[in-house]
Design brief:
The complex is a heterodimer. By secondary structure, chain A is mainly alpha-helical. In chain A, 74% of the residues lie in helices and 3% in strands. In chain A, strand 1 and strand 2 form a beta hairpin. Chain A starts with a helix and ends in a 14-residue tail after the last helix. In chain B, the strands form two sheets. In chain B, strands 1-2 form a two-stranded antiparallel ribbon. A two-stranded antiparallel ribbon of chain B has the order 3-4. Chain B has 15 helices and four strands. The two termini of chain B are 14 Å apart. In chain B, helix 3 runs antiparallel to helix 4, helix 3 packs across helix 10 and helix 11 packs parallel to helix 13. The chains are: A mainly alpha, B mainly alpha. The interface between A and B is large, with 42 and 42 residues.
Chain lengths: 289, 337
């Protein structure tokens, strides 16, 4: 029982950290970012290079992950988002274009860095015992970092001028522009923040899965499901849905077998959407065309 | 010569195009060429149906290849476990495609755009995961053990359309090629009919402005479901033809590279245009065949092509061609007709 809870908590923290990045972009720009998986992969590889190839201590991997994700976010913005933002069919076009972009990034890693599977050199030794079970420090640190990022993002949106700008663009880009806000710059920052958060979550995710070129695909799909259930674009909704789904998946894997984790998630997402088409926590309709 | 009514003109063009494809077979090209051509014709057929749902009916369907896989696996598994010839399992593959499409349509009809993308993509990926992780022993031979769905390796040796027996020795590829032409013809007839139907225009209105169409009382949900299901039938058939002609079927069709390749065909050809899938397939086939020495960057090439077309010419080849044709057509004739 405690095993299930601890596993679910760790998994939920990972889901939350990668899903908030996706939710942030959806909520502000109205774009479903299918290059999200590539941001995660970029973070993982940036950390790998920093620690394994350049020999810096393990914690600099997190910073490198953030930087790698942010750089990729900026690139995707300048090359793609900025060119089709606000044009007809933006909603579907951005999905197609970001999907293509993630393919290019996977190809790039395969051909330039190499297709080998490597271990993420991010590890803290030791365990702490709680009652009958024990948790590794590593897991605790991971949970703390994920929650810290999710909380930090929420605070940033609520209490800083950048956050107010992001909210203004999310609600009414034309009004934001008329009030002297550079929409392009706000969108660029959103992409970089989201890339950084996704990059760090990539470092954390790959510590348990190892690093390989398509490592971002699974977290992308999981984040999509989390965001849909939480209500696309809602950050608190995404955090709540992340833990809920992690618990559901862990229970399904313990009770039915490992391969059923994903199908159970899928059935739950379809069920939720049939009953509540805007997700469990989503109330506001967000469309932009 | 081609008629004034645009729908009639499209039908006649289609007949000419299919006849042209048939003539190529009579010129006696190599078996390799015929085999490759048959494969591209099947992909073109799949994209016509995907284009019908995504480009014409405006449903943001991304997991379209799940319908294709449903048809293909039906043929492969019935052939392997019940010894059914692909000819007999063709109708069942169509039913499989229909069922998956109908359920997908029901689940996503009330949803708004991006939610549809996520749900259909998730269904296709769940299918992929279930197949790839399927390692339980279902069928034992002397040397090895095979799972029900064939797992990551896919299924082989489930029979083919038997053209060697029907048409004579060495004619298997010709038969496959002719069958693929029939499939593409069928898919194109459906696409042309839907696109020129009153609902095709209603979809157009809905894509241009949803609030304005709703204000005029256009409701298309029911017809969207019908188009979705019909495309499921034909995509299931396409999957069956693929399985029967390639004599192998595996989870690779559900992987991202296949999705991206077909999406590039649709976008390069012109999303929402009836002739887009065929033009796109010709273009992408030329790109693919000229890049064989450059294979490790193949997917990136499609991706770059797709991005460039989507940003610079969102109407694609078909849109560009029709604008070009309009420029050369004398204006006064248009008025008098």
């Amino acid at each position: 029982m405690t095993d299930i809870l601890v596993t679910a908590l760790a998994l939920g923290a990972l889901y939350a950290s990668s899903a908030v990045a996706l939710a942030l972009i959806w909520g502000t720009i109205g774009m479903l970012n299918l290059a999200h998986g590539a941001f995660i992969t970029a973070g993982a590889y940036a950390s790998l290079m920093m620690v394994r190839d350049l020999g810096f201590p393990w914690w600099t991997g997190l910073l490198a992950g953030a930087a790698g994700g942010a750089v990729l976010g900026a690139l995707v913005h300048l090359l793609l988002v900025a060119r089709i933002f606000g044009r007809p069919n933006f909603e579907i076009n951005i999905i197609i274009v970001t999907m293509a972009a993630s393919t290019i990034i996977v190809d790039f890693i395969n051909n330039v860095i190499g297709p080998a599977t490597t271990r993420q050199p991010f590890s803290i030794e030791g365990r702490i015992s709680i009652g009958a079970t024990s948790i590794g420090w590593q897991t605790l640190a991971m949970i703390a970092i994920c929650l810290g990022m999710a909380l930090g993002l929420t605070l940033l949106l609520k209490h800083t001028s950048l956050g107010r700008g992001i909210n203004a663009v999310a609600q009414e880009p034309t009004a934001a522009r008329l009030n002297g806000l550079s929409v392009g710059r706000v969108v660029l920052r959103v992409m970089m923040i989201s890339g950084a958060v996704a990059g760090v979550s990539g470092v954390l995710i790959t510590h348990s899965t190892a690093v390989y070129p398509t490592v971002g695909q699974d977290p992308l799909l999981k984040s999509l499901i989390v965001c849909v259930i939480g209500g696309l674009g809602s950050i608190p909704g995404a955090i709540a849905a992340a833990f809920l789904l992690a618990l559901l998946e862990t229970v399904a894997q313990f009770e039915l077998g490992t391969k059923w984790g994903y199908p159970v998630l899928l059935i739950s997402v379809v069920a939720v959407l049939v009953l509540r088409p805007n997700g469990l926590f989503g109330a506001r309709e967000i469309t932009r065309n | 010569m081609l008629g004034k009514n645009p729908q009639e003109r499209d039908y006649r063009l289609l007949v000419l195009f299919l006849l042209g494809l048939g003539v190529i077979a009579a010129l006696g090209p190599s078996n390799y060429l015929l085999g490759q051509a048959a494969l591209y014709l099947i992909w073109a057929a799949v994209v016509t149906q995907w284009n019908l749902v995504l480009g014409v009916a405006g449903i943001m369907l991304i997991g379209h290849l799940a319908l294709f896989a449903a048809g293909g696996y039906t043929v492969a598994m019935l052939g392997l476990y019940f010894g059914l010839s692909p000819w007999l399992s063709l109708p069942l593959a169509a039913v499989a495609g229909f069922v998956v499409a109908f359920l997908m349509g029901l689940a996503t009809l009330r949803l708004r755009g991006a939610y549809t993308v996520v749900v259909t993509l998730a269904i296709a990926m769940a299918m992929y995961q279930l197949i790839v992780t399927d390692v339980e022993c279902f069928r034992k031979t002397a040397t090895a053990c095979y799972s029900l769905t064939g797992g990551a390796r896919g299924l082989t040796r489930f029979g083919d359309f038997g053209f060697t027996k029907l048409l004579g020795n060495g004619m298997a590829q010709t038969g496959n090629y002719l069958l693929a032409i029939v499939l593409l013809g069928l898919c194109m007839v459906v696409a042309i009919t839907v696109a020129h139907s009153p609902y095709g225009r209603a979809f157009q209105a809905l894509r241009d402005s949803e609030p304005a169409s709703q204000a005029r009382g256009i409701r298309v949900e029911k017809f969207q479901l019908i188009v979705f299901s019909a495309s499921g039938v034909l995509t299931g058939l396409a999957g069956a033809v693929y399985a029967g002609t390639q004599r192998t079927f595996g989870p690779q069709v559900l992987e991202f590279p296949t999705l991206l390749f077909l999406l590039s065909i649709m976008i390069v050809g012109g999303r929402g245009h009836v002739w887009g899938p065929i033009l796109g397939t010709i273009c992408l086939a030329l790109v693919k065949e000229s890049l064989t020495s450059f294979a490790q960057w193949q997917n990136s090439t499609y991706a770059v092509l797709l991005i460039v077309i989507l940003i610079l010419a969102p109407e694609g080849l078909a849109g560009g061609l029709s604008r070009l044709a309009a420029r050369f057509r004398p204006v006064h004739k248009e008025v008098s007709s």
